[in-house]
Amino acid sequence: MSSGARGRFIVFEGGDGSGKSTAAAAVAARLEAAGQRVVLTREPGGTPAGEAIRALLHHRLSPWAELFAFLAARAELVSTVIRPALEGGATVICDRFAPSTFAYQVHARGLDPVVVRTANRAAAGGLEPDLVVYLDIDPAAGLARKAGEGPAVATGQEGLEFHRKVREGYLLQARDDPARWAVIDASLPAERVAELALERVLRALR
Ligand code: TMP
């Protein structure tokens, strides 16, 4: 059942170890405490099939296989979770979405942007974020934060050079779409990062 207006779609992005999952959860909790209906989800994952695809992505796949695994998880998440929640009027906060694909698979892995754009549009059903909150961090610092963690998606295991390209890929997207992207310095203390992110999200929800 629809409650009238479509909800807003907010995406948190950042390199590995940027703290975006913590910030996304903090913002979602603050909005819920203020009485908003919020759906917090993540990519890859957010559905039983998506979580199974996440486990598959612990394997190092060939680049196109990796791309389509991420897109399969996205297609499932959009059609079964994100779209229905937005249509019901909820605010959806998603920990990663298409900007990750352009930073990791296009900019860092080197896949053809035209093909990826078309495939992504099909997977996402044309859905685009209303706001992208990007937590920017020096990849060396991000990787140091993640060091010693358990098994991870293979992209997170790549070296510093790869993660430098990922950051470049994010910054290019932010530069091309400044109205929709909020860039936050993720080297700040986590509470300050969450505060800055919340400010931007509240502005987008007005
Ligand atoms: P995270 O959820 O712990 O940040 O890890 C997810 C990993 O998956 C991270 O290294 C980024 C990567 N990723 C891609 O390479 N492409 C994508 O489209 C998505 C959603 C994630």
UniProtKB/TrEMBL annotation:
<feature type="domain" description="Thymidylate kinase-like">
    <location>
        <begin position="12"/>
        <end position="195"/>
    </location>
</feature>
<dbReference type="GO" id="GO:0004798">
    <property type="term" value="F:dTMP kinase activity"/>
</dbReference>
<dbReference type="GO" id="GO:0006227">
    <property type="term" value="P:dUDP biosynthetic process"/>
</dbReference>
<dbReference type="InterPro" id="IPR039430">
    <property type="entry name" value="Thymidylate_kin-like_dom"/>
</dbReference>
<dbReference type="GO" id="GO:0006233">
    <property type="term" value="P:dTDP biosynthetic process"/>
</dbReference>
<keyword id="KW-0418">Kinase</keyword>
<keyword id="KW-0808">Transferase</keyword>
<dbReference type="InterPro" id="IPR018095">
    <property type="entry name" value="Thymidylate_kin_CS"/>
</dbReference>
<dbReference type="Pfam" id="PF02223">
    <property type="entry name" value="Thymidylate_kin"/>
</dbReference>
<dbReference type="GO" id="GO:0005524">
    <property type="term" value="F:ATP binding"/>
</dbReference>
<comment type="function">
    <text>Phosphorylation of dTMP to form dTDP in both de novo and salvage pathways of dTTP synthesis.</text>
</comment>
<feature type="binding site">
    <location>
        <begin position="14"/>
        <end position="21"/>
    </location>
    <ligand>
        <name>ATP</name>
    </ligand>
</feature>
<dbReference type="InterPro" id="IPR018094">
    <property type="entry name" value="Thymidylate_kinase"/>
</dbReference>
<dbReference type="GO" id="GO:0005829">
    <property type="term" value="C:cytosol"/>
</dbReference>
<dbReference type="InterPro" id="IPR027417">
    <property type="entry name" value="P-loop_NTPase"/>
</dbReference>
<keyword id="KW-0067">ATP-binding</keyword>
<dbReference type="GO" id="GO:0006235">
    <property type="term" value="P:dTTP biosynthetic process"/>
</dbReference>
<keyword id="KW-0547">Nucleotide-binding</keyword>
<protein>
    <recommendedName>
        <fullName>Thymidylate kinase</fullName>
        <ecNumber>2.7.4.9</ecNumber>
    </recommendedName>
</protein>
<keyword id="KW-0545">Nucleotide biosynthesis</keyword>
<comment type="similarity">
    <text>Belongs to the thymidylate kinase family.</text>
</comment>
